[in-house]
Amino acid sequence: MKPHLARHRPLALAALLALGLLNIAPLSQTQEWTRFRGPNGSGLSTATPLPTQWTAADYNWRIKLPGAGHASPVLWGQHVYVTAADPAGGQLELLAIQATNGAVAWTRAFPQVRYSTHRNNSLASATPAVDAAHVYLPRQDGRNYYLTALDHAGRQVWELPLGTSTTEHGSGHSPVVHRDLVILAVDHDTTGRILAVDTTTGALRWEVPRRPGRSDYSTPCLFPLSGGAEALVFNTQEDGIAAVDALQGRVLWQVDGVLDKRSVSSPIAAGGLIFSSCGSGGGGNYVVALRPDPIGSQPPEVAYQIRRAAPYVPSPLALGDLLFLWSDSGIVTCAKLASGELVWQERVGGNYFSSPVCANGHLYGTSNTGEVVVLAAAPQFQLLGRSSLGEATHATPAIAGGHLYFRTLTHLASLGGK
């Protein structure tokens, strides 16, 4: 469950244009790693160089967290933000950690009555979002669900009660920030909703109802429309793939039935397409590529599907004209972005919940046992390195300031920048 960019220099703008990412800067705040999987959920960074293989002696620092969790780290300025929870319940902690040396700047503890989770989930699985003013933390206390904003000194600014939470697998919904809104998709087993909340006051600005069904844990991405408008793209089994006007909360289009299973991975936007996936523990996973109407007034067309060795939990990644899929069972697929035509497919071993990230043309995939496999993000398969984090992990790494940040079950480590 997750159900994680370097500070860009002017030359990096050309790379962002080539990847179709420039129009989404308001969501991602490209100089930071502000949400699950970084800028617009793409998993992409311009950081260079980063190591492709290492030992424990190569870490800048590695610290023990005051609890366990699967949430990914996020970064703003000189602080890494990460959550940890007492596995037996009791409290959830948000930590601000100095990126330079791993020192804990502050912690904020919240009471947390234990709630039911899947055996592969944790009590700290939702990745926070962050902007220049606040850290935004979804949290659950028993069945009660909240969205809380804290400033960068750890002081609570506002808290919005979201009612009760009913899920088969437990909590794990991650928010995003767009302009002056923090947006959270609360797709629970009962009737859910998408919420847009004022970042300054915590006031509800808009909401979109969601059909009841199985909980989905997908984090949205932005898709730019002609004329400067922006759509947020959401995945669920019950509501399919939907585009919502990011500022007004108006549903622009919704494609029902295109996802016939739970969506745990998060969508990405690249090359004028939207890539979403769904699946189950029993299989039947697939990735669907949609070609949206650039105006946003008509439902999109299905460009293609990929079903062979498709991921269930890990999210897709696109770089240039290539699409990369890292399956739960350790099969990596490289396909042509525009058509889905297979370029290569190789088994690298291991099992994966973490989503791949990419920097300097290198793909980083982190297995459940904590092995990091690094591949060339290229038309030819090339294994660049294997390294152990020394502990199990389900979290996706973050990249910022020329460093990689890995969160294992109970530790956080910094690597690179040397």
Structure, described:
The protein is mostly beta strands. It has a single domain (12-415), classed as YVTN repeat-like/Quinoprotein amine dehydrogenase (Methylamine Dehydrogenase, Chain H, 7 Propeller), CATH 2.130.10. The protein has helices at residues 12-18, 25-28; strands at residues 44-45, 61-64, 74-76, 79-85, 90-98, 104-112, 129-130, 134-141, 144-151, 156-164, 176-178, 181-186, 192-198, 204-210, 221-224, 230-236, 240-245, 251-255, 268-270, 273-278, 286-291, 301-306, 317-319, 322-326, 331-336, 342-347, 357-359, 362-366, 371-376, 383-388, 398-400, 403-407, 411-415. It starts with 11 loop residues before the first helix and ends with a strand.
Keywords:
single chain, disordered N terminus, 4-stranded antiparallel β-sheet, 418 residues, 33 strands, Methylamine Dehydrogenase, Chain H, mainly beta
Radius of gyration: 19 Å
CATH superfamily: YVTN repeat-like/Quinoprotein amine dehydrogenase
The main sheet comes to: 5 strands, mixed
Percentage of helical residues? under 10%
Q: How many structural domains can be distinguished in the coordinates? A: 1
Give the termini distance in whole angstroms: 32 Å
At the first level of CATH, what is the class?
Mainly Beta
**Which outline best applies?**
globular
Overall residue-averaged pLDDT value:
89
Going by helix content, strand content and strand pairing, the class is: mainly beta
Determine the CATH topology: Methylamine Dehydrogenase, Chain H
Strand percentage, roughly?
A: 35-45%
Annotated CATH architecture: 7 Propeller
Number of helices: 2
